[in-house]
Amino acid sequence: MGSAPIQLTKIKLGKLQIIRRRLLQRYEYQPFLSCLAGLYGCQWRRYQRTRILPGEFCCSKFELFCFGILVATFGLVFVLLYFWGEAKNDYNDFDWNFYSGKWIPWSVVVLGVAATLFTYIAILLIGIVVVLGVTAVAIGFLYNQWHEEWNTFALSFQVTAPYLHIGAVAAMTVLAWPVGQHFARMNRKVPRAFILSVYFAVLLFLYLVPLGMYSPCIKEKGTLGPKPAVIGHRGAPMLAPENTLMSFEKTIEHGADGLETDVTISWDGVPFLMHDQTLRRTTNIEEVFPSNKTMNAAFFIWDELAELNAGKWFLQDNPFRTKHLLSREDKQKASRQTVCKLIELLRLAAAHGKVVIFDLFRPPQKHPYRNTFIHNTLSAIQESGINESLILWLPNAMRSAVQQLMPGLVHIHGGKKPIEELQLDKIDKLNVRYSEISSGEIRMYAASNISTNLYVVSELWLFSLVWCAGAHSVITNAPQQLKELHRPWFLMTPSQYKMMWISSDVVSAALIIMIFIFSWWRENGLSCFPNGRIKSENLVYSKFQTKMNNVWSISGEADHHDDSMLNASPAPEAIGLA
Predict the structure, then answer these.
(1) What contacts 367, CB < 8 A, 6 or more positions away?
(2) What does the alpha-carbon distance between residue 533 and residue 538 come to, in Å, rounded to a whole number?
(3) Distance CA 68, CA 395 (A)
(4) Which letter does DSSP use for residue 338 in this model?
(5) Long-range contacts of the stretch 441-445 (C-beta < 8 A, 24+)
(6) Dihedrals phi, psi of 474, to nearest 5 degrees
(7) H helix or E strand, kind and range, residue 372
(8) Is 325 helix (H, G, I), strand (E, B) or coil?
(9) What count of other Cβ atoms lies within 10 Å of the Cβ of residue 292?
(10) Tens digit of pLDDT at every position of the chain (578 positions)
């Protein structure tokens, strides 16, 4: 600062202008480009620009287009990743739908692709259009092929919305940096008002959206109902082969309250446990009876079914990716499992006092027991000696006849039904998919002494949600996990949530105000600090440091371009930033 400015007597005016442009371009404020450069190149500095005047828009149309593509792609990838993360509860159903002779964990493949795309878009800008296209196609495919899962996507907001709200407020607070810089540097009132109004409209919406937010897990102390009973879906399919005796033993071992299964009638009238129409997925039918591998399971006699191994597939396919949780003894036991009779399951349940609920499949055409399969099943129940009150009778076929033959059975209806009809049919339980009933409907049925059983609930966040909603029992693939949960996730009182909401909004508003004030001061100065910034309409000065000395470059309107006029002109007082 103490050295005298160098007299630029021998520099042509054209060279002076070039020097001036090169010196000034590094210090241009371009907030959106700076934001992109920082996010994708870790270069958090003012972005270089030529041919831009103070007060003009900081970005070209192409750059704005790229920024919009970035935001849209990030949003789509986030939706895809969020959807697939919340869909984990039904991964097994998704994989089963694509089973074609070999078990492939397609759900994990989709999760890996979604996570990779999200990571890519969150780090790099290259390939943005490809990521956008792949993500859009993936979301469209999932919407068409797995439409029902989008109900789970919407349902998840009932527990994640309070936390997504905080994340969105934080994102808008960070976005205040480029918006504030751009607002401060613009001179035209209309673009400035438009940018400011859009930004603050979105911000105000986020600040007030909790007013319309609902979550059953936000409730007063003492109003939480009892924990829902846990019923193992085909046993404990994460710890043993489904619908085998070992699977049900594992369910009981982990303290579950009931057992769920699927019953098929063999060609010779024996009720046995099998979910699929064929035996390919869960037995070694291709090794024992290769010519009959596609035959309906009901067309085999029991002696043939007893020859099949029903456990090795579990160790080979590892459908839930939980094989590593099994001990060596459990793996050996699993490899020896066979097809299980219904009567074996009922005797096990009777010995431990566990309730049993099952789907009963009517045999196909030309089956000898197609019209008497109900009688075969009731005979197995009587022969097992189980208390009738432990049986939750789900089949709708011949329900009135079953009520007369075995009046002690507890009848449960599959799906929703008007209360008057349920009471008329003497039904006091419902079996409903978790995404097809609301907490209000659960309370409505409960007021008429009709309890609800929801299926299939395996994720802890989803179990927490239905617990808060008042469900009485759930069918799950993970009884070993749900029995260990003693308090719902996300449970909070209205006052706790209000404190979290208001405090996050207040902190965000304070930070945004500070960012805007700082951006305005840096660009224009403040009236309370009149010497903070000195601007000139016609002159722009900047200073740079060299190894030898300080050089002051001067840019202004020039009417003469010869060296004599330059030398004759008095040197103006140097103005710049220290």
Answers:
(1) 265, 267, 298, 299
(2) 15
(3) 54
(4) B
(5) 441/416, 442/469, 442/470, 442/471, 443/470, 444/419, 445/419
(6) -135, 150
(7) none
(8) helix
(9) 15
(10) 444 444 444 445 555 555 544 544 444 445 555 665 665 555 555 545 444 445 555 566 676 676 677 777 777 878 888 887 877 887 777 777 776 667 777 787 887 887 777 776 666 554 566 667 777 888 888 778 777 788 888 888 888 888 899 999 999 999 898 888 878 877 778 878 888 899 999 999 999 999 888 899 999 999 999 999 999 999 999 999 999 999 999 999 999 999 999 999 999 999 999 999 999 999 999 999 999 999 999 999 999 999 999 999 999 999 999 999 999 999 999 999 999 999 999 999 999 999 999 999 999 999 999 999 999 999 999 999 999 999 999 998 889 999 999 999 999 999 999 999 999 999 999 999 999 999 999 999 999 999 999 999 999 999 999 999 999 999 999 999 999 999 999 999 999 999 999 999 999 999 999 999 988 888 776 665 555 444 434 434 344 444 334 433 434 444 444 444 444 444 444 333 33
Helix (H, G, I), strand (E, B) or coil at 422: helix
| Nearest C-alpha neighbor of 427 from the set 414, 437, 443, 436 | 414
Nearest alpha-carbon partner for 380 in 261, 295, 474, 277: 261
Distance CA 303, CA 246 (A): 20
350-371 b/e (C-beta count within 10 Å ≥ 16 → b): eeeebbbbbebbebeeebebee
Q: What is the dihedral of CA 288, 294, 299, 302, to 10 degrees?
A: 30
Rounded distance between C-alpha atoms, residue 179 and residue 171, angstroms: 12
137 touches 113 (CB < 8 A)? no
For residue 561, give the 3-state DSSP assignment. coil
Cα angle: 341, vertex 343, 349; to 5 degrees: 115
| 409/412 Cα distance (integer angstroms) | 10
Per DSSP, helices labelled H in 277-412 are 285-288, 302-306, 312-317, 328-334, 342-352, 373-384, 399-405
Residue 225 CB burial class (10 angstroms; 0-12, 13-18, ≥19)? middle
Residue 250 corresponds to which tokens in the numbers above? 């594992």
The tokens 């939750």 sit on which residue? Answer: 392
Which residues make Cβ contacts (< 8 Å) with residue 149, sequence separation at least 6? 83, 87, 90, 94, 142
Rounded to whole angstroms, how far apart are CA atoms 71 and 65?
A: 10
Give every CB contact of residue 540 below 8 A, 6+ residues apart in sequence: 20, 24, 555
Q: What is the CA radius of gyration of the chain?
A: 35
**What is the pTM for the complete model shown?**
0.73
Amino acid letter, 352: H
Question: Which neighbouring-strand residues pair with 68?
Answer: none
CA atoms within 13 A on the CB side of 556: 14
Residue with tokens 């409505």: 444
Residue 550 is classified by DSSP as E
Q: What is the DSSP letter of 146?
A: S
Provide the token pair at 359: 């789907």
Token code pair at residue 479: 């009884």
**Packing angle of the helix pair 128-145, 106-123 (nearest 10 deg):** 150
226 and 320 in contact (C-beta within 8 Å)? Answer: no
